[in-house]
Amino acid sequence: MADCIFCRIAAGELATPLIHQGEDFVAFRDIAPQAPTHIIVIPRQHITSLADLTDPDLSGRLLQAVRETAQREALEDNGYRVLINIGQHGGQTVQHLHFHILGGRQLGWPPG
Ligand code: AMP
Predict the structure, then answer these.
(1) Where are the domains of the chain?
(2) N or C: which end of the chain has fewer CB within 10 A?
């Protein structure tokens, strides 16, 4: 989608460095990190939110991409959090499905 910032990152149209990528996904650092490590993992294809992710094979590949990305960032030993914001009440601000990976500090619970 031409006016989607994450589609533009996936297409390489912006200077955003990709820290991991595969056939179906790209991963890059969040521009406003909420933890020492804060990574965004997105499908290359435009999917608005988790509510629109109906392909079970792609769902599995994206989850594996998240796991791989966390492993490459050496987050596994101390743990990390993966979250997806969905729609207005979920606090989703970019309308392209994305997984947040947060780590590098003790994270609080519950979220606000
Ligand atoms: P959400 O609130 O779940 O929709 O999260 C969107 C996330 O994308 C926020 O954490 C933003 O800081 C992040 N973000 C927005 N634009 C960019 C960008 N150009 N590069 C990297 N991260 C971005």
Answers:
(1) 5-103
(2) C
Give the pTM.
0.98
Mutate to test the pocket of ligand 1, among 18, 19, 30, 38 (most ligand atoms within 8 A of CB): 30
pLDDT tens-digit readout, 34-43 = 999 999 999 9
Name the CATH topology of 5-103. HIT family, subunit A (3.30.428)
Radius of gyration of the chain (CA): 13
Q: Please, which contacts does 25-29 make with residues 24 or more away whose CB atoms are closer than 8 Å?
A: 25/61, 25/62, 25/65, 27/65, 27/69, 27/101
